[in-house]
Amino acid sequence: MKKCLTILILCGLLLSGCGQTEQPRDPDRMRIVTTVFPAYDFARAAAGDLADVTLLLPPGAETHSYEPTPADILSVRDCDLFIYLGGESDAWVDTILDSVEPTGAVMKMVDCVELLEEEEVEGMQSQPEHDHDEHEEHGPGQVAEYDEHVWTSPRNAADITLAVGEKLAELDGAHAGAYRENAAAYGEALRRLDGEFEAFFDSLPDRTIIFGDRFSLRYFAEEYHLDYYAAFPGCSTQTEPSAATIAFLTDKVRDEHISTVWYIEFSNHLVADSIAEATGTKTAMFHTCHNVSRAELDGGATYLSLMEGNLETLRENLP
Fold first, then answer.
1. In which domain, by residue range, is 234 found?
2. For the stretch 28-65, what's the b/e string if a residue is b when 16 or more beta carbons lie within 10 angstroms of its beta carbon?
3. 267 within some domain
4. 59, 88, 299, 310: most buried, per Cβ within 10 A?
């Protein structure tokens, strides 16, 4: 991966010096580049109409398999603010930052909130390349691995938006008030939504949820005190669970009288379908907001609208 990125970077820099002409830019508009949809949405909300915000990850794509183009690399180098997740799934960013020196500011979403360690719950299919024993012992020289899906908590989303607003205010003092006001308004809407989620889960007799899929909602589950079981960890690249994993989740659905088996966006939901068929239950999709489809992007989807949709889906599918 690093070799490919180095070649792309060299090609991009060569192209930039071989007759390519940039479009004239408005000096009064900030240029913000983001890697994933949540960062893109929070930046849009905080910047309003004072900046051009670019999303590098193509609609429907996975960060784990994404490879930046030379144009992407130049965008990162030349923007006023680059916002990335800062986790395992966008480790390719470090190669870019080591190879080209950005002219603007750099911001990591994981630096904006308190992090939780990665968690592997009972029955979950382990990642072969991950040794989660270190999380339990933390002996000398061991480093805890943290869950990178920080945006899945609406409270975290509000905090990240406010942090982006502050960074923009710092970079563009002439419009500092507007950035802070925009960020505060979006943060307030997210906190209202957080209250609605909290009230909904408080109304349930049981807070156990089961995902026949990857589970990247650790922060969401922690915030609303949910008990969860899932086929794979959030950053897993596996799609075929073991028979033991399927049997465990199927038994859990029966034993806990679960009404719905969940899956995430862009999933083939075959595992969820299999469990639901074996138990006579239904399936439903929970949008983690990691990325959006082309139709969602063109339709103006936001983190707020997607999470509001999740709340409605929860209301329709949980007792």
1. 204-288
2. eebbbbbbbbbbbbbbbbbbbebbbbbbbbeeeeebee
3. yes
4. 310
In a domain, 296, yes or no: no
Q: Which helix (H) or strand (E) holds 248?
A: helix 243-255
Beta-carbon neighbour count of residue 21 at 10 Å? 5
Tell whether 244 and 188 lie within a shared domain.
no
Per-residue pLDDT of the chain (319 residues; tens, 9 = 90+): 555 555 555 454 444 444 444 445 666 789 999 999 999 999 999 999 999 999 999 999 988 778 889 999 999 999 999 999 998 888 888 888 888 889 999 999 999 999 999 888 887 876 555 443 334 444 444 446 899 999 999 999 999 999 999 999 999 999 999 999 999 999 999 999 999 999 999 999 999 999 999 999 999 999 999 999 999 876 666 667 889 999 999 999 999 999 999 999 999 999 999 999 999 999 999 999 999 999 999 999 999 999 999 999 999 999 7
Q: Do residue 153 and residue 279 come from a single domain? A: no
- Burial class of residue 126 in the structure, from the number of CB atoms within 10 Å of its CB (0-12 exposed, 13-18 middle, 19+ buried): middle
CB 61 within 8 A of CB 111: no
Q: In this structure, how many other beta carbons lie within 10 angstroms of the beta carbon of residue 166?
A: 16
Which token pair is 247?
């049997």
Q: Pseudo-torsion of CA 108, 173, 74, 5, nearest 10°?
A: -10
Number of independent structural domains in the chain = 2
Residue with tokens 């950035």: 179
Number of Cβ within a 10 Å radius of residue 230: 28
Phi, psi of 190 (to 5 degrees): -70, -35
Q: Quick count: other Cβ atoms within 10 Å of Cβ 109?
A: 28
Does residue 134 lie within any of the structural domains? no
Residues 162, 222, single domain; the answer is no
| Structural domain contains residue 163 | yes
Q: Which segments of the chain are extended strands (E)? A: 30-34, 51-55, 81-84, 105-108, 208-215, 227-233, 260-264, 282-286
